[in-house]
């Protein structure tokens, strides 16, 4: 009896793999914010700024890839769609590789109290939606991605990939755009306060 390949195992257990990866992802982020992962190197404030800029670039590129992938699938260009969505997924993994050390080894920024109330409330509103969408979107994105990478185009017609993919891409794009907008507000338009990681974790 032939042994199933890793791809086939994932294909046969997309829901279970999605749940597993989602739990691991949530745990990594939560543990990082709680200071429970002591493996991150100390990152200076300038390093945090540099990572923040790089993350904004990566997220902007991910938005462009998602938009292109959406356009291509609506025009029946499956290979281009798959390439664009795979690139977007890789970019998000790259985001995590920068974001977790930035928070765990560097610190966090917060919009300053001196910023006008209208701007601050708008910022908090966008940040709230961005965070909620980031949390809710993760399993949906993973599920759509795993379906797309383990099934042929013909097989995908018998799965909820198209419906789930529209939800995943739409919410993912909105979350990323809001993330970039809040980055611009915090880093380029108005002032912020900075809390080093050790201070954040001691509170």
Quickly describe the structure:
With 203 residues, the chain is mostly helical. 78% of the residues lie in helices and 5% in strands. It is built from eight helices and two strands, in the order H-H-H-H-E-H-H-H-E-H.
SSE blueprint and pairings:
Layout: H1 6-12, H2 14-33, H3 45-74, H4 78-106, E1 107-111, H5 117-150, H6 153-156, H7 161-189, E2 192-196, H8 197-202
Antiparallel strand pairs: 1-2
Descriptive notes:
There is one protein chain. The protein is mainly α. The chain has one domain (40-202): Four Helix Bundle (Hemerythrin (Met), subunit A), CATH 1.20.120. The chain is 78% helix and 5% strand. The chain contains 8 helices and 2 strands, in the order H-H-H-H-E-H-H-H-E-H. The protein has helices spanning 6-12, 14-33, 45-74, 78-106, 117-150, 153-156, 161-189, 197-202, and strands at 107-111, 192-196. The chain has a two-stranded antiparallel sheet with strand order 1-2. Helix 2 runs antiparallel to helix 5 (117-150).
């Amino acid at each position: 009896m032939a042994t199933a390949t890793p791809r086939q195992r994932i294909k046969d257990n997309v829901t279970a793999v999605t749940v597993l990866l989602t739990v691991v992802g949530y745990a990594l982020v939560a543990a990082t914010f709680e200071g429970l992962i002591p493996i991150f190197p100390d990152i200076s404030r300038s390093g945090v700024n540099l990572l923040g800029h790089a993350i904004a670039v990566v997220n902007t590129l991910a938005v462009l890839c998602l938009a292109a992938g959406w356009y291509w699938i609506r025009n029946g260009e499956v290979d281009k769609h798959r390439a664009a969505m795979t690139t977007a997924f890789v970019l998000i993994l790259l985001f995590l590789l920068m974001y977790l050390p930035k928070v765990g080894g560097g610190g966090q920024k917060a919009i300053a109290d001196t910023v006008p109330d209208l701007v601050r409330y708008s910022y908090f509103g966008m940040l709230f939606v961005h965070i909620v969408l980031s949390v809710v979107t993760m399993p949906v994105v993973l599920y759509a991605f795993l379906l797309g990478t383990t099934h042929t185009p013909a097989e995908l017609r018998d799965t909820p990939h198209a419906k789930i993919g529209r939800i995943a891409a739409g919410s993912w794009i909105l979350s990323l755009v809001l993330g970039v907008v809040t980055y611009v507000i915090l880093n380029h338009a108005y002032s912020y306060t900075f809390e080093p990681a050790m201070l954040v974790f001691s509170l």
